[in-house]
């Protein structure tokens, strides 16, 4: 039963007939996997069409279609009025009606027809269609309310997110401006410091060349003088070799003391 209920679909179409646009009819369809049932009313009279599995299978084989494809096509045309299709609801014998609609297949315009029998209880059929429309209208109204409420919630959330995003953006810009200002201050300070160091270095290089050269020349002169004194001290001992050994020893001692004194 659950499988059958899941496979059952319902549609209701307000069909405007070109030959009588001021007198629309309502077609309620109940669709199954292999057959369908139609109830039709113009508000006063009612008709029914029971398409059995055998009839649907025979019609589908005539059009070289699977049964499921035939059912789907019929539901499409009787569930929603197709603008390119020509619908007719004409009289037949004995109070019967013939419901037909056209469609195109591979460039050829074709027509499907189903015979509808007069209902034995017009009020019941008409009331059933009205009840279905009322239930559908209530369901649609509730769905509209739910969608509207959901939309309002989403709208409020979007506005809140937009406000928060603008706040974050402003804070980001303020933060970046402050950081850039600090960075520029530090950068300019470093530039000034580098210029001062460069100027100081240039001044030292300009004023420090001459004193350095003079100091180097004085050092060389001093080294040369010390070297001459050493040479003189080394030349004295040979002149005193002719004396006695005591004199030699004493002179050497005096020489050592003199050198040490210096």
UniProtKB/TrEMBL annotation:
Residues 24-119 form the XRCC4 N-terminal domain. One of its GO terms (molecular function) is DNA binding. InterPro entries: DNA_repair_prot_XRCC4, XRCC4-like_C, XRCC4-like_N_sf, XRCC4_CC, XRCC4_N, XRCC4_N_sf. The keyword Cytoplasm does not apply. One of its GO terms (biological process) is response to X-ray. Keywords: DNA damage, DNA recombination, DNA repair, Nucleus. It is found in: Nucleus. Residues 151-197 form the XRCC4 coiled-coil domain. It comes from the Eukaryota. One of its GO terms (cellular component) is DNA-dependent protein kinase-DNA ligase 4 complex. Residues 199-262 are annotated as: Disordered. Residues 251-262 have a biased composition (Basic residues). Residues 219-239 have a biased composition (Basic and acidic residues). The keyword Transcription regulation does not apply. Belongs to the XRCC4-XLF family. XRCC4 subfamily. This is DNA repair protein XRCC4.
